[in-house]
């Protein structure tokens, strides 16, 4: 399949255990797998970390406790790379997930203002940002425990002050609100695919 320019890019952000993966997986299925690439900016970080340290890449990518053991070290590595080149993992994820073959890009895990900046600089006019939120009690019920050095680091707090979200999804378990927001996002996506 040949390469193409994306027609719309949806960038999601949110705290640990807010349900970003759940929401983006649901959207990915609804938009249509043939049109869509689901990118995880953390994918290249975890892949390189797994290779360098002889770890299980698949386990680093899931929501298990396995990745929590290595989270702080991976975050440090990711910060070092971003300080050298803030677009490094954005480009690496596009390549890793072969996004250039798809019209719709869903980025499931933006964590910094530079993540948003990089995509907006290159794809102005086709980028929408979405913040996924859940209250702390819901996050705890999903396995979240506050961890110093992780939950107070830029990887969790870098977008807390961002106020320009195109959509905010409160993901506390109410399907109606989630469905309404996803329908709005899908409608925007379909309009851009015309």
TrEMBL record:
Binding of ATP occurs at: 15-21, 142, 171
- Keyword Cytoplasm set for record: yes
Pathway given in the UniProt record:
Isoprenoid biosynthesis; isopentenyl diphosphate biosynthesis via mevalonate pathway; isopentenyl diphosphate from (R)-mevalonate: step 2/3
Residues of the signal sequence?
Answer: none
Chief site of localization: cytoplasm
One GO biological process term is: isopentenyl diphosphate biosynthetic process, mevalonate pathway
Q: Entry's InterPro entries?
A: P-loop_NTPase (IPR027417), Pmev_kin_anim (IPR005919)
The molecular function GO annotations come to:
ATP binding; phosphomevalonate kinase activity
Q: Name one GO cellular component term.
A: cytosol
- Keyword terms of this UniProt record: ATP-binding, Cholesterol biosynthesis, Cholesterol metabolism, Cytoplasm, Kinase, Lipid biosynthesis, Lipid metabolism, Nucleotide-binding, Steroid biosynthesis, Steroid metabolism, Sterol biosynthesis, Sterol metabolism, Transferase
Q: Where in the cell is it found?
A: Cytoplasm, Cytosol
Is the keyword Transferase assigned to this protein?
yes
Write the Enzyme Commission number(s) for this entry. 2.7.4.2
Q: Which domain of life is it from?
A: Eukaryota
Q: What protein name is recorded for this chain?
A: Phosphomevalonate kinase
Species assigned in the record: Ladona fulva (Scarce chaser dragonfly)
Q: What is the lineage of its organism?
A: Eukaryota, Metazoa, Ecdysozoa, Arthropoda, Hexapoda
């Amino acid at each position: 399949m040949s390469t193409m320019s994306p027609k719309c890019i949806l960038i999601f952000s949110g705290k640990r255990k807010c349900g970003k993966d759940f929401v983006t997986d649901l959207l990915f299925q609804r938009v249509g797998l043939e049109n869509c690439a689901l990118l995880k900016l953390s994918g290249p970080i975890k892949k390189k970390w797994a290779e360098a340290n002889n770890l299980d890449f698949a386990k680093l990518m899931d929501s298990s406790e396995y990745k929590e053991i290595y989270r702080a070290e991976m975050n440090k590595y990711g910060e070092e790379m971003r300080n050298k080149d803030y677009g490094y993992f954005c480009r690496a994820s596009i390549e890793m997930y072969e996004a250039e073959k798809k019209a719709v890009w869903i980025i499931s895990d933006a964590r910094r203002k530079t993540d948003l900046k990089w995509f907006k600089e290159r794809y102005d006019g086709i980028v929408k940002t979405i913040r996924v939120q859940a209250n702390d009690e819901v996050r705890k019920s999903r396995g979240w425990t506050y961890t110093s050095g992780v939950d107070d680091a830029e990887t969790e707090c870098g977008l807390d002050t961002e106020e320009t979200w195109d959509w905010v999804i409160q993901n506390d378990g109410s399907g109606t609100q989630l469905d309404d927001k996803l329908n709005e996002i899908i409608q925007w996506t379909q309009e851009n695919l015309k």
